[in-house]
Amino acid sequence: MRAMLLSAPRTSLQESALPTPSPGPDQLLIRVRYCGVCRTDLHVVDGELKDAKLPLVPGHEVVGTVVAKGEHVSDFAVGDRVGVPWLGWTCGRCSYCRSGRENLCDNARFTGYTLDGGYAEYSVADRRYCFRLPAEYPDAEAAPLLCAGLIGYRSLVMAGDAQRLGIYGFGAAAHIVTQIARHQGREIFAFTRPGDEPGQEFARQLGAQWAGPSDAKPPTELNAAIVFAPVGALLPVALAAVAKGGIVVCAGIHMSDIPAFPYHLLWGERAVRSVANLTRQDGEEFLQLAPKVPIRTTIQVFPLRQANEALGRLRAGQVHGAAVLAID
Ligand SMILES: [Zn+2]
Ligand SMILES: [Zn+2]
Question: What is the pLDDT of residues 122-142, one digit of tens each?
Fold first, then answer.
């Protein structure tokens, strides 16, 4: 099995030959076709997320075909298409699991972080956390739905019914969230890195009412904002842009430190919250919604051996839409 393997944090990925794993009783062995490249992969490779499994195969937007299955698996057959998301396993016993909040499970395992992921020819996954993907989407276009889509959707739900929604950081998740929000009749105000005019144009093409640099004031007060960029300094900026009663949702798994800010930015019942991971319920809801919008993913495909190149482009903000690795 060829895989892009991370053997120590803060290094690049190395191509490596691994034995093909065999599936456990509840697992699927999957021939990976495409795997999305997410900003979280960068945080893992850069060592910003602690306690990654090492050595590790990154990647948590896995689209592939079932080639073998464990003895307890009856809901997937060999040959079925399957999607593997970030949430790879939960304990089912902790207080979070038992209260419908498995995304917060104390013992959760995550694909491409504490479990091997999809930057590889083969991957194993627990079938209870896998999704069937809407038939409308070819494999490559489906990959970004599995994290950018799912967690973007959860972030949008957390933003409530805000009519004027700001989005800071216009990457893979933002390009999907914008389409859902427009479908719901909301107005999107997109903020990109200063100087990223192509990114602003991309946002306008997707229906953003306004797009500009993150240091600009929006033309009108926002009702909520989602911060996808891992930049803590954007949090007080976003708070300053939302109206009284508005919420700022931090959607990334990692963020640089948030600078001190005056209390009046939070005053007026403004709120700040983070979004962590996903539940299977989020996945089911989102994957039903996606073809109805219909969400169309803009992708840039790289071969597996160019995984480092794909991560580098993502780091530099040079990917419009989502980067996807083709595993061939
Ligand atoms: Zn749990
Ligand atoms: Zn992700």
Answer: 999 999 999 999 999 999 999
